[in-house]
Amino acid sequence: MENKLALELKGVTKKFGKVVANHDVSLQVHHGEILAILGENGSGKTTLMNMVSGIYFPDEGQIFVDGEEVVIKSPKDAFKYKIGMIHQHFKLVDVFTATENIVLGVEDGKKYNIKEAKKRVKAITDKYGFNIDLDKKIYNMSVSEKQTVEIIKVLYRGADILILDEPTAVLTPQETEKLFDVLRNMRKDGKSIIIITHKLHEVLEISDRVAILRKGEHVDTVPTKDATEQSLTEAMMGEKIDLNIIREEPKNVKERLDVEHLTVIKRDGTKALDDVNFKAYGGEILGIAGISGCGQKELLESIAGLQQTTKKSSILYKPDDLGPQQLVGKSPREIRKLGIALSFVPEDRLGMGLVGNMDIVDNMMLRSYKGGKTAFLSRKEPKHLADDIIEKLEVVTPSASTPVRRLSGGNVQKVLVGREIALGPKVLMVAYPVRGLDINSSYTIYGLLSEQKEKGTAVIFVGEDLDVLIELCDRIMVINSGVITGVVDGKTATKEEIGLLMTKSVDREVNTDGKE
Where are the transmembrane segments (predicted)? Predict the structure, then answer.
């Protein structure tokens, strides 16, 4: 059973104008296996799978399903050959229930009967161990629940080959483990699963084999049991990469932020943040851990002037040259003038901070734009900044004059984070700055954050990878349901300790200063 091929690509090539996205790629996927596809940003992973799923059509090469050559010109063709892809951005109708979304558009020749459809959907969820309320509306669901609906949608349509594009990018460690349990059950049932991912420890945990792409070409496929993070990184990058995060002891530590009684009320009357108290220090990296949607976004946005807080809330900024400055009530522009930069990278990467139709140079100028005028007398200075970010962060782009919307998600991220760091802030807040980035780019970002710390900047880092938080951060503050449940020392903390705090019931007596 293991040796039977479910899918085979032979000599597949795809070009977009002069850009070669994939060149002469050949790889195989067996029945009952999980194949991880690994590669740096722009290596052609998603493009390759988009050809298998019918979104793109190859310029050259052949695709075989169960040993027979097939022609896939659309997602409908892909489903005909029992191939389904779950993309990073979900395609669901918010006002419909899970069941309604799953059965939407299915043409099986049977009369529409939602009760019968729900029974068939329930059989799928029970078989593979999905945990989902089939009557729940999409707008009430978490990201992991929406992803579950997308996966069941594909299974309901009869898919035997499933392709998941960065499936854990927005999941917590707990949600990731649940997903992996489901994928293992599907593998036992003979399904073929292809995962596109950047997370090496997850590749080693869940896959049977790893196919490595580099600059659009397939360079190797290795059994996971024979691989290590270092060997996979070297194969992916074509050179030896240092995977160590160097954490220097904090020096010349100065209090920069003193947050007291910070409370944010949502539109529905519930509290996104409930009486949050903590301090952030220049010369250290303060990590923030928590299950997705527990208040991390509101916390950073409150400090940046993007969230309305209650009257008792206080956010004191303590610069060197002025007395304490109250940030509550100040506009984002006034707060930026004080030296506080926010680099928040949401799921919609162009939703905050960058304008997709503007080129990289113009996006550098955005921060200085005021009242119809710009602080730059010409494009010379922002052009230098754009070129510097492109070189230092290895942004894959034809030039600095390329519209940002034409860049891959990972490269958009590099431009945004690079610009925020270039502002030279006294307080730098970054949320998920390496989401969607390859391993080399991720470690470049970690290095830049450490450099900012050494310059005396107070760095606040919201991350989803607990291993990175422990390696990079001096202190880690854990948030659950808008309340701080604990602060731990990065040097001595464990993932288990942080995981418990992420699900801990509220304790309002926690000392969130983190100092003795």
Answer: none
Same fold, 5-237 and 254-339+424-502: yes
For 269-348, where are the E strands, in sequence order? 271-282, 285-289, 314-317, 325-326, 340-344
Q: Are 161 and 192 in contact (CB under 8 A)?
A: yes
Find tokens 């494009």 and name the residue: 379
Tokens of 69: 């050559």
User: Is the distance from CB of 304 to CB of 277 less than 8 angstroms?
Assistant: no
Do the Cβ atoms of 306 and 329 come closer than 8 Å? Answer: no
Q: What's the Cα-to-Cα distance from 161 to each of 38, 132, 164, rounded to whole Å? A: 18, 22, 10
AA identity, residue 25: V
Indicate the range of 323-327, 391-395, 506-510 predicted with least confidence. 506-510
Domain ranges of the chain: 5-237, 254-339+424-502
**Residue 66 near residue 72, CB atoms below 8 Å:** no
φ, ψ dihedrals at 413, nearest 5°: -60, -45
- CATH 3.40.50.300 given to domain 254-339+424-502: yes
Nearest to 319 by CA among 303, 340, 299: 340
CA gap 258, 269 in Å, rounded: 26
Which two tokens mark 158?
């009869």
* CATH number for the domain whose boundaries are 5-237: 3.40.50.300
pTM of the model: 0.70
Query: Distance (Å, rounded) from C-alpha 1 to C-alpha 32?
Result: 8
Q: What is the pLDDT of residues 164-207, one digit of tens each?
A: 998 887 676 778 888 999 999 999 999 999 999 877 888 999 99
